[in-house]
Amino acid sequence: MKSKAPAILMLLGGLLLFLGGGESLNFDFLSPGVRPINAEGFRVMLVYDDSKLSLMPETEKSVIFSSEIRLYLEGKAEDFRFVSNKTDMSQDEAYWKEAFERPRKDNPWLMISSGKTKGGYEGKMPKTIEATLSLLKKHGG
After folding, report:
1. Could you give the C-alpha distances from 101 to 77, 89, 96, in angstroms and in order?
2. Distance CA 58, CA 127 (A)
3. Which burial class, exposed, middle or buried, applies to 41 when counting CB atoms under 10 A from its CB (0-12, 13-18, 19+)?
4. Chain centroid to CA 78: how far?
5. Which of 40, 67, 97, 122 has the most CB atoms around it within 10 Å of its CB?
6. How far apart are CA 5 and CA 98, in angstroms?
7. What is the strand order of the sheet 43-48 is part of?
8. Mind listing the pLDDT tens digit for each residue in 54-67?
9. pLDDT beneath 50: ranges in the chain
10. Which of 80, 74, 106 has the alpha carbon at shortest distance from 92?
11. Class of residue 118 by CB neighbours under 10 A (exposed 0-12, middle 13-18, buried 19+)
12. Pair 99, 36: CB distance under 8 Å
């Protein structure tokens, strides 16, 4: 009798790739109780490497400097930070320092603590303003 383990592993791998896009950790799916920013409310942190900005595609740079995204966050988020990976966070609240010190697997790295649930999102920043706004609205309303 053949083992079903390889087929099950392939199915699970495909499901994870489909649900997670293979690029990020989505805490709504993996761990609903975890907040990447350990504070109540809808909060967002985007960390980027400013030494790599010149190599970044224009569409991705436009996300980091988007007035549309910032206006949305000013109206919806408890607080947000878009910071260089070289930023001195020593004067910020403990939850911002904790979030900033979390391991980042890519650049730019986006962390969202959902205002609707205890979950959120942590992963590579979406590549366009529209995709980023969609993700923010999913978690912040």
Report:
1. 21, 10, 9
2. 9
3. middle
4. 16
5. 122
6. 39
7. 24-25, 120-124, 109-113, 43-48, 79-84
8. 999 999 999 999 99
9. 9, 12-30
10. 80
11. middle
12. yes
Q: Are 136 and 68 in contact (CB under 8 A)?
A: no
pLDDT on residue 90 = 95
CA gap 45, 48 in Å, rounded: 10
Rounded distance between C-alpha atoms, residue 92 and residue 136, angstroms: 22
Burial class (CB in 10 A: 0-12, 13-18, 19+), 65: exposed
Determine if the peptide bond prior to 103 is cis (ω within 30°). no
- The number of residues in the chain equals 141
Q: What single letter denotes the amino acid at residue 85?
A: N
* Secondary structure E strands in 1-141: 24-25, 43-48, 79-84, 109-113, 120-124
Helix then strand count (H, E) for the chain reads 6, 5
How far is residue 68's CA from residue 82's CA, in Å, rounded to a whole number?
14
DSSP alpha helix (H) spans, 39-128: 58-64, 67-76, 94-101
